[in-house]
């Protein structure tokens, strides 16, 4: 028994004094010692993880846990790379929801400048991009009830609103020609500056003008950056 204990003691002493493969490997790689706060951002060789980072990563940035282990580490490193930035959709397009390219204040100045050239002063109150449904409806009713702003100016107002751009695609996407309106594609002529001159209003036109705010939104979205 005494002989067995002596042999066991000598064996353990040998093992303790013999440098392990891991110790030699760490010495060869010169495993870094980094502050705890850097454990979630610092890069290291997966074969030589800083000892102090093991529990810190588990607690504060568990998405880096695969880096603590050999298996699956390549996938983990790849997942940490920043994904390519998605290109923002261009303004004024269907992909951006027809988000205008210009601010409303700038667009309104362009609108009014055109109206000062082509529209009677009595109709200048219409020369702004009113996209609020209630306000647009009130403005049109006041205009139609009055006798100062002639309907003959409506074509010029729409021309200035569009800045000579065809915005029918926007009007279609915003349902200005859906069957529920029961006017076919009649409203789309208000979205195209080359459309038929508007010198009289029928019941069908009234349905289109009821959506004046949508028409103004599409004309505003059609203006490109200067």
From TrEMBL:
Pfam families: DB. It comes from the Eukaryota. InterPro entries: DB (IPR002602). Keywords: Signal. Residues 1-17 form the signal peptide. Residues 114-219 form the Domain of unknown function DB domain. PANTHER family: DOMAIN OF UNKNOWN FUNCTION DB DOMAIN-CONTAINING PROTEIN, DOMAIN OF UNKNOWN FUNCTION DB DOMAIN-CONTAINING PROTEIN-RELATED. This is Domain of unknown function DB domain-containing protein. It comes from Steinernema carpocapsae (Entomopathogenic nematode). The lineage of its organism: Eukaryota, Metazoa, Ecdysozoa, Nematoda, Chromadorea.
């Amino acid at each position: 028994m005494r002989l067995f204990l002596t042999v066991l003691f000598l064996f353990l002493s040998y093992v303790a004094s013999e440098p392990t493969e891991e110790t030699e490997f760490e010495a060869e790689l010169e495993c870094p010692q980094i502050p705890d706060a850097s454990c979630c951002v610092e890069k290291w060789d997966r074969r030589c993880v800083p000892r102090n980072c093991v529990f810190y990563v588990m607690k504060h940035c568990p998405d880096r846990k695969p880096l603590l282990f050999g298996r699956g580490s390549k996938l983990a490193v790849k997942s940490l790379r920043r994904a390519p930035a998605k290109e923002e959709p261009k303004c004024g397009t269907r992909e951006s929801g027809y988000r205008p390219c210009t601010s409303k204040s700038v667009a309104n100045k362009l609108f009014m400048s055109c109206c000062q050239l082509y529209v009677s002063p009595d109709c200048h109150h219409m020369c702004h991009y009113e996209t609020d449904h209630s306000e647009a409806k009130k403005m049109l009713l006041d205009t139609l009830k009055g006798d100062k702003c002639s309907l003959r100016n409506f074509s010029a107002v729409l021309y200035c609103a569009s800045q000579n751009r065809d915005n029918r695609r926007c009007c279609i996407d915003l349902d200005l020609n859906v069957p529920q309106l029961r006017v076919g594609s009649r409203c789309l002529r208000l979205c195209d500056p080359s459309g038929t001159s508007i010198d009289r209003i029928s019941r069908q036109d009234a349905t289109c003008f009821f959506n004046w705010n949508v028409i103004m939104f599409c004309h505003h979205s059609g203006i490109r950056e200067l």
